[in-house]
Amino acid sequence: MSEAASAGTTSTTGLSPLEPMLRDWLPLQRWFAGKGRRIGRLRMISAADLLPPGSSPGLVHLLLDVDGDCYQLLLGVRPALPPALAPALIGRPEQGPYAGQCVYEGLGDPRLAALLLERLRAPGTLGPLRFDRDPMALIPAALTPRPLSGEQTNSSLIYGDSYILKVFRRVGPGVNPDLELPRALAAAGCARVPAPVAWYEAVLAGGEPLTLGVLQPYLRGSDDGWQLALGRLRSGDDFTAEAHALGRATAEVHSALAAALPTVALGPEQTARLASGMTARLAATAREVPALRPYEAGLRGAFDALAASRGAGVPAQRIHGDLHLGQTLRTADGIWALIDFEGEPARPLADRRRPEPAVRDIAGMLRSFDYAARSHRPFAPAWADACRTAFCEGYARTTGRDPREDRVLLRAYETDKAVYEARYESRHRPDWLHVPMAAIRRLAAGSDRGFGRAQPGTASPGAGPAPGEGFPSLSPHPRPQPPRRPHT
Ligand SMILES: Nc1ncnc2c1ncn2[C@@H]1O[C@H](COP(=O)(O)OP(=O)(O)O)[C@@H](O)[C@H]1O
Ligand SMILES: O=P(O)(O)O[C@H]1O[C@H](CO)[C@@H](O[C@H]2O[C@H](CO)[C@@H](O)[C@H](O)[C@H]2O)[C@H](O)[C@H]1O
Questions:
Q1: For the complex shown, is ipTM > 0.90?
Q2: Is residue 120 domain-shared with residue 240, that is, in the same domain?
């Protein structure tokens, strides 16, 4: 048995010596949801040494209850940090088993990242942690790790440009859809999603396991749909062929999910409940984001219309749940893949695992074309409208049903998404708040979003009048000023 495999008894480390430094460090992390407020309750749920105590470096796995949310931390411990790891320092506790040592964010340490891969290659348990893998997958040893840079909800490591490990930060009981759905899709033979090859969970007394991390093939040389779209906008190029292909890819994934996992038909009461959930989220967001308040009544109209539609038999199924251009990758072979099936990170896990109308994902993508167009100077409404049309046409081509036919549902979901985005941006990227706010003004005024022509070449950025502001004659609002360009 290797040294690493013999470790793993639940650590006796108390939280108290680390607590003051964690209180300072946690709110600064991109993945920490409780930003902007002081941490109240901080409690240790579990702790496990992934290396025998006294190893240098040491690796400590923690699950912390922070004001009711559970967070996963992987902490490194060394007597001193090499310069490359200096930015990872969390602090030097004065007492406890790590007294005088450097406690740091462990994922940035290649030695510790390599150890995590070894754990995933060899299934088994380690204190509260359970490591599992697809028995058919051959995961090579000693792949060089590097942390993924860039903005993320979680933290990811890339191994040898062959695999990517996502370490979930805010976790909860129950299988994470980002493991559940790609596994179901892989089993169903759907090649649009990288199939998980290994994963790890926490098994705590008296509850369902918590998914902590998923390893999947890294699509080397792929282009992120968001960056591709921005590149096209910058060079004045059309994106409708890609939008159409994305519509087809989304439809294929939806069809495979509907075939592989339970579906339900929402009756009038459930549709009304859906609408009241959206209304409640709007009210909560308006309390948090003052800029939204003047539009609250107008936005509510979309949800009232959904409730009044008394929709009976609305098909609901497992969906992506947070689909946008940044969740799409065009592989080196030109195939579109979808990633990150976690759903909206802020929603409770049980909600994210509930079947919902597939239109929710479509609304997410339609919003994303708007985001891309608004991040371009000047705002490129015709470009966005053409992409929206192409996406719906691609979707319809595969499923036989054009999502625009579900007008009330689509409008409600687009409104709900824009509200979610307002909260997301105000919490994480206040400089971007103007992007969803532009959509919110339009949606609150009751204007439907136009769908432009999808033929390539008809929609150059910034061209012509503004069909993108909906059916312009219906909009009582002047055209918004070009936004400040968000950093990408
Ligand atoms: N299988 C993959 N192949 C290549 N790149 C990937 C893969 N999975 C994720 N990525 C890259 O990592 C980024 C973050 O992944 P994502 O699943 O969205 O994480 P998070 O939930 O933390 O936001 C993506 O935007 C993409 O650039
Ligand atoms: O971190 P995730 O990718 O899971 O998703 C969150 O962050 C996204 C931003 O990184 C956010 O997406 C919003 O901004 C995108 C441009 O950066 C845009 O394409 C999306 O349409 C827009 O919703 C997403 O909402 C959030 O959950």
A1: yes
A2: no
